[in-house]
Amino acid sequence: DAGVTQSPTHLIKTRGQQVTLRCSPKSGHDTVSWYQQALGQGPQFIFQYYEEEERQRGNFPDRFSGHQFPNYSSELNVNALLLGDSALYLCASSYGEVSGANVLTFGAGSRLTVL
Amino acid sequence: AQSVAQPEDQVNVAEGNPLTVKCTYSVSGNPYLFWYVQYPNRGLQFLLKYITGDNLVKGSYGFEAEFNKSQTSFHLKKPSALVSDSALYFCAVRDNWAGNNRKLIWGLGTSLAVNP
């Protein structure tokens, strides 16, 4: 049973570039959430997708955008990269719209370095 | 405002001794509380959660946590630590108030080191 898979695992970009990160949820899950984890910090909620719509968004600028596909997989796009965007980006999946006591299943993350 | 505090950056214990990793929280409504563990180069793994009911919650790998509403705390405990428990532990809270109930708010994490 495949868990949450993310790609790529590592990538290096330069300031101003754009990046796309991909996530396939755990089998049977239909909701994807994205988190940013800077070094030495806890994860910060970026947004959540359910039924191909963004359902809630954290305090991130519009440079951060996403998409969910009919097969429930998701992409996170970041435009005009800044040095401060360097972080581990975590994708988490669950069944049903995330609320209350839902438990998230996390992928191993995509580590983005912006030079 | 919602928040989670893990007051200790690092906890050191000897193998076989009991361990406690502390967490306090602040939410608008009633809390749903979670503990996750993160091993190097791996994603976050769910340990346990508190929804309602019994204040002592049992989870994976022998861990348990005690919910204390008056102290707004949710400390993680294990009676006998193993070297393999060494990892980064995160406390998280989700507010059951409708406007905030989709996102998890995380603490900064506590690094647990269990010494042989």
What does this entry look like structurally?
The complex is a heterodimer of chains A (115) and B (116). With 115 residues, chain A is an all-beta fold. Chain A has strands spanning 5-7, 10-13, 19-24, 31-37, 44-50, 53-57, 64-68, 74-78, 87-94, 105-106, 110-114. In chain A, strands 2, 4, 5, 6, 9, 10 and 11 form a seven-stranded mixed beta sheet that branches. In chain A, strands 1-3-8-7 form a four-stranded antiparallel beta sheet, with no helix packed on it. Chain A is globular. Chain B has no helices and twelve strands. Chain B starts with a strand and ends with a strand. Classes of the chains: A mainly beta (115), B mainly beta (116). Chains A and B meet through strand 5 and strand 10 of A and strand 5, strand 6, strand 10 and strand 11 of B.
SSE map:
The complex is a heterodimer of chains A (115) and B (116).
Chain A: E1 5-7, E2 10-13, E3 19-24, E4 31-37, E5 44-50, E6 53-57, E7 64-68, E8 74-78, E9 87-94, E10 105-106, E11 110-114
Parallel strand pairs in A: 2-11
Antiparallel strand pairs in A: 1-3, 3-8, 4-5, 4-9, 5-6, 7-8, 9-10, 9-11
Chain B: E1 3-5, E2 10-14, E3 19-21, E4 24-26, E5 31-38, E6 44-50, E7 56-58, E8 64-68, E9 73-78, E10 87-95, E11 105-106, E12 110-115
Parallel strand pairs in B: 2-12
Antiparallel strand pairs in B: 1-4, 3-9, 5-6, 5-10, 7-8, 8-9, 10-11, 10-12
Short description:
Chain A has 115 residues and is an all-beta fold.
Largest sheet of chain A: 7 strands, mixed
Rg estimate of chain B, integer Å:
14 Å
Q: Report the major sheet of chain B.
A: 6 strands, mixed
Q: What is the chains' assembly state?
A: heterodimer
Mean pLDDT of chain B comes to 91
SS content category of chain B: mainly beta
How many helix segments of chain B? 0
Helix content of chain A: under 10%
Distance between the termini of chain B: 41 Å
Number of strands of chain A: 11
The tally of helices of chain A reads: 0
Which two protein chains have the largest interface (Cβ within 8 Å of the partner's Cβ), and how many residues from each?
A-B, 26 and 25 residues
Low-confidence stretches of chain A: none
